[in-house]
Structure formats: C-alpha cells, structure tokens
Amino acid sequence: MSAPAPSLYSENAKQIAAGLGLKMGRPNLEAFADTLLELARADRNIIAVTSDSRGSGKLTPFGQSLPKQIVEMGIAEQNLVGVAAGLASAGKHVFAVSPACFLTARSLEQIKNDIAYSDNPVTLVGISAGVSYGALGTTHHSLHDFAALRAINNLIVIAPADNFETQAAVKFAAATNKPIYLRFGKAPIYELPVAPFEAGRARVLRAGNDAALIASGETAIHALLAAEWLAINHNMQCRVLSLHTIKPLDTEVILACAKDCRAVTTVEEHMIYGGLGEACAGVIAQSDARCKFKIVGIPDEYTVTGSQADIFRHYGISMEGLAQTALTLIA
Q1: Measured between alpha carbons, how far is 214 from 210 in angstroms, rounded to an integer?
Q2: N or C: which end of the chain has fewer CB within 10 A?
Q3: Residue 245 lies in a domain
Q4: Rounded to 5 degrees, what are φ and ψ at 242?
Q5: Virtual CA dihedral for 12, 15, 16, 21, nearest 10 degrees?
Q6: Do residues 190 and 15 make contact, with C-beta atoms less than 8 angstroms apart?
Q7: What are the backbone angles phi and psi of residue 50, rounded to the nearest 5°?
Q8: What CATH number corresponds to the domain at position 209?
Q9: Domain end: 157, 189, 221, which one?
Q10: 62: part of which helix (H) or strand (E)?
Q11: What is the pLDDT along the chain (331 residues), one digit of tens a residue?
C-alpha cells in the first residue's frame, strides 16, 4: 500500500486556516466540470472537446448526460484545437479540455492562429497545470503557459484560486464570445474569503499596507495564510490579492500595492520568467512607484522531483516560505 501524498499544508498552516474559518473545498477541476455540465444542459451550443482527457478532466458525467455535446479527439492536441475552432466558427461555444503542459506547447500555433487570430470563442481549459503531476517531471509540468499565452494577442488568461472563482470564471467564459484560457490544478484547496469576482479585476482577500502578497491560482491560499501568520507573530498587516486574471492585468491594483506598501511579493505556480511576477514588475517599473519587489515561483533550473507539495515547499511556495520572503524584504 503506497504512502499518502504529502499535504500542501503544514500542521501550522492548517491551524491558521482553521483560525480564519476557512473550509477545504473540492479540486477546482470538479467545480469546473459540474458548472460546465449545468450550463451545457441549458445551452445545446456548449460543446466539450477532449484529448483523451474526459476522465482526468472530470467530464465523465458530462459525457454520460450529454453524449451529443462532447467530442473525443484522442491524444491529438493540435487536432483538438483545430476542431474546437471549427465548431466555434459554426456557432458553437467550445470548451477544449486537455492537460495544460500539452495543450499550450504542442498546439501553440493552432491557439495563436485558429483561436486568437481568428477570434473564435473557444475556451481552452488547461488541466493539471503547474506541477500538479508532481514526480512525472518536466515533460508533464506546465510552467510556461502564462509566458507563452500572454504574448498572444486577443486571448484572456485566467487562473482561478478556489471553487468560487472557478465557477464564476466558467460562467464568464460561457457568456463571453472571446478566446479564453482557463488554468486548473488537481488538488483540493481551501475556499478563500468571500469577495466579488470580475474578470480582469483582482480579488482583495486581505487589507494591509506593510507588505503586499500578489498571487495567482492555487498559490493564493498560501499567500493568505502567510499574511495571517505575519499578523499573529510580527504584527504585520499584509495586503493579499488573488490576481486570477493574468491577462488583461489589473494594473490599477498592482500600482496601488506598489505605492501603499513597503514591499511587494508575487507568487505563482509557474516559471519566474514571463508569468505573473514579470507582468507585475513591468507595470511597477514603468510607473513612479518605488518598493522592494520579489518574484516567487519556479527558478530557471531542472525542477526538483517530488510531489506538488514537495516542490512548493522547496521553492518557498508555502505559508512559511512566503512569510520569510516578506520579512526579508522589509528588514
């Protein structure tokens, strides 16, 4: 019998989460699949297209309930995107679901030309993103997708941080006739404090002016826990943002952090090059704001082997790591 996978949260982090009244939610992928099924039952034009990823994308119930609204392409991501674009051009609203590592690398040309350049309303759904596949290694890690897709015109990029953001993002995508990339991991995650969701606008999870922690996707909870730990142990008041929309970027809230706070830390489950951190750095560098700044993510090296939890802790993507980064910045 294999040992259970290491938890993304230390015992101290779990205690902090309990103190904040946070509840553990489902994996975002499950919230995505349930929301898509609900929407598709009410709209026959919503089509799911998968690349042998019906099971891993939690779309088996979708296929059983709506067999005429799902298309299986097999392991052929370029064909997946091309067929999705064709269906969209014929009036369908398509969700193309595939592991993020393959979807955004193997079919990048089709995303650029068939989806974005052709302005087809396809929602590209990158599943098991970041280092969700853990020990399967670099071939299955998706640490490039923000960098690649931010550089493509006419493509919205969203990485939800919890089930609430996931449900809102899927509904936004279904109601928007624009190309969109949604990014999801695999692990169950805490539900964040209630705050409105609007594509292109950050969610403010916590107020504070000592330092700011700007996070995307499943790293947001670690930023929030770090802020609470700093408040308890160092009387620091940290602003925490879930910057779920990587593109278009909420420049107003980023500049407010840079002007109000002594230091800004960004955190993402992505390479430190080309992602959320460098996007924020570009905004701040072109302004008159002056603050200390640090990007936390995966550095330019052969990524350590291990579970998602192992990798997060190794690179400081944890409550403890982010708290130490903030303390070092303002020292």
Answers
A1: 13
A2: N
A3: yes
A4: -95, 100
A5: 160
A6: no
A7: -125, 160
A8: 3.40.50.920
A9: 189
A10: helix 60-65
A11: 455 668 899 999 999 999 999 999 999 999 999 999 999 999 999 999 999 999 989 999 999 999 999 999 999 999 999 999 999 999 999 999 999 999 999 999 999 999 999 999 999 999 999 999 988 989 999 999 999 999 999 999 999 999 999 999 999 999 999 999 999 999 999 999 988 899 999 999 999 999 999 999 999 999 999 999 999 999 999 999 999 999 999 999 999 999 999 999 999 999 999 999 999 999 999 999 889 999 999 999 999 999 999 999 999 999 999 999 999 999 8
| Predicted model pTM | 0.95
Q: Within this chain, do residues 20 and 32 fall inside the same structural domain, yes or no?
A: no
Residue partners of 288: CB distance under 8 A and separation at least 6: none
Using a 10 angstrom Cβ sphere, with 0-12 exposed, 13-18 middle and 19 or more buried, the burial of residue 4 is exposed
In angstroms, what CA-CA distances link 180 with 25, 145, 157, 214? 24, 13, 6, 22
Q: What share of the chain is helix, strand, coil (3-state, %, to 5)?
A: 45, 20, 35
Cα–Cα distance, 246 to 74 (Å, whole number):
29
DSSP β-bridge partners for residue 250 = none
Q: Most distant CA pair in the chain: distance in Å?
A: 60
Residue 172 counted as domain residue: yes
